[in-house]
Amino acid sequence: MPDAPARNVTQKLLASHLVGGELSPGSEIGISIDQTLTQDATGTMVMLELEAFELDRVKTELSAQYVDHNLLQTDERNPDDHRFLHSAAKRFGLWFSQPGNGVSHPVHQERFGRPGATMLGSDSHTCAAGAIGMLAIGAGGLAVAAAMAGEPYFVQMPDVWGVRLTGELPDWVSAKDVILEMLRRHDVNGGAGRIIEYYGPGVEQLSAMDRHVIANMGAELGATTTVFPADEEVRRYLARERRADAFTELTLDEGATYDVHDEIDLSTLEPLIALPSSPGNVVPVAEVTGREIYQAYVGSSANPGLRDFAVPAMMVKGLRTEPGVSFDVNPTSRQMLENLGAMDLLMPLLHAGARLHQAGCNGCIGMGQAPATGMPSLRTVPRNFPGRSGAKEDAVYLCSPETATASALTGVITDPRELPERFGIAYPRYQDPDPDDYIVNAEMLEAPLPVEEARNVELVRGPNIVPLPEFDPLPDDIEVPVLLKVGDNISTDEILPAGQRVLPYRSNIQAISEFSFEGVDATYPEQARATGDHAIVGGDTYGQGSSREHAVIAPRYLGLRVVVAKSIARIHWQNLANFGVLALEFADPADYDRVEPQSVLCIEGWHEQLTRGPEVAATIDGGQPVTLHHRLSERQIDMLARGGYTNVLKDYQ
């Protein structure tokens, strides 16, 4: 019998969960899903979707619902949604993490993540769980709801991008600088169609939470997900979390290969920073030192570890941050906050001037802590898209905790390597607390109810919770005006904004649709209502960023039927198909320049054309031919013909 082929970690994870298709790049595969993660900004739609196709109980190994994004309670809408999610978790059999317990990604990794498992999450940063050897993928809520109903997750098989790490990080350089180096080299679309797998001797120098930082922001590279091996460091991490029995070793085989290759010598890295307003706009901190700042912000899912708060606390001990700088500390979990206090590292932060916020996403998603107009805000968050902070004229920079804290002390962007000379600060040598002293707090996690008890639970609805609209299938012949034309790298934050004004309407599509494309063209909702069915044309990487499917559902509610772009980001492309919007790309990107707002796009017999192959013949303005391209599978084409995935699942159930 021939020996089994040598496999990398990604190939092992995929092979062990493959239920359809072949593991050849570009073909559609179906994988079984062990766990799901939902949060409150997207979870309300997931629960409404479960209700829409009459699910009795989730069929996954484990599903968890977190309340971490919409924590501000300035009126009744957010608390009403919290109650709805609590009741839905009880009804459908999910774990429930209460408001203020912490950010979903680190809490899930601590309490539920396990090497060798697959996870689908209705949050693009679900990929962070790859830090401990999981195959964790962000997706639209409807795909997550389907997984909770026992359906496979379908994705085009990515290339596996092996990134070999060697060396050891220098003082004042940390895991955030590793992922910023990847973004400096490859920009926001460098990982499109790829799973990134880190390997090599340098991996051993990174803690499980360092790996979480790097895996989390793989989403900013456009990658399907990121994978690390499950090695002795992961064993140690899970043992500290009192979950040693969850460990399974998962490493690459000797002789395993990758489709794409890269290498980083960690010892050569320096502090890096992403300038406004893209995670890919990365330069050395040394190039931009001296710019006055308004805010330095530590926390978020992109830097959620105990170390990411302990090091800043040790840096500012006995000092005072510069007057006029808002030094915002956003705890990522109650557990982390308790440990920080037990290590006598909370009071140094407060004494230095830190503004301590509740455990959650907060300013990362525009829920408070907005910066001053046009003034630099240095943040350890994963994204700095325009307006995401909650301020229209924001200037958000992405950096490490060391760089953010150094700048808080000086009042200007500062390379942390300057601190020994300026303040006599030695680089803090952080060590995890002794396992016997480490605090584990699961008190605010509610386990699922028994089946019979769950069936008696009624969903608690506030007046802002409205059933999903029903959408009709595409007509076979399409003739629609182009209502809006946008440029490159349009994010879902620009299609449907986040923040405290908008996200409280997340369970009311009619209301939230009024904010569609607000930052691009505020007249879009009014024009769409007057026009009816229409198309939108976009540039490269259209729909990058958050997985929120509201960025599809709201325009679809207003009449969007077709999106044509130079390229479309993975999750948004899947969401478009899931809700019955035809997603196409220009075969020749130069044709983008030929299409203008109010051009009329015609596609005759779209269904037959899509089933024949990837090319789609279309015309603009009454006869000018343009060739488009589609990446839809037979399954997705059938889904479009039936009006979207909700109708398919409803029929299946």
- Helix segment tally: 22
Largest sheet: 7 strands, mixed, barrel
Model regions low in confidence, pLDDT < 50 over at least 5 residues = none
The number of strands is 27
Shape: globular
Helix coverage percent: 25-40%
Mean pLDDT: 93
- Give, in spatial order, the strands making up the sheet with the most strands: 21-22-23-24-27-26-25
| Distance separating the two termini | 42 Å
Give the structural class: alpha/beta
* Rounded Rg: 24 Å
What portion of residues belong to β-strands?
A: 15-25%
Description:
It is a single chain. With 653 residues, the chain is an alpha/beta fold. 28% of the residues lie in helices and 19% in strands. It has a 7-stranded mixed β-barrel with strand order 21-22-23-24-27-26-25, surrounded by 4 helices. A 6-stranded mixed sheet has the order 7-6-3-4-5-20, sandwiched between helices. Strand 26 and strand 27 form a beta hairpin. Helix 2 crosses helix 3, helix 2 (40-52) crosses helix 5 (141-148) and helix 9 (306-316) runs parallel beside helix 12 (401-410).
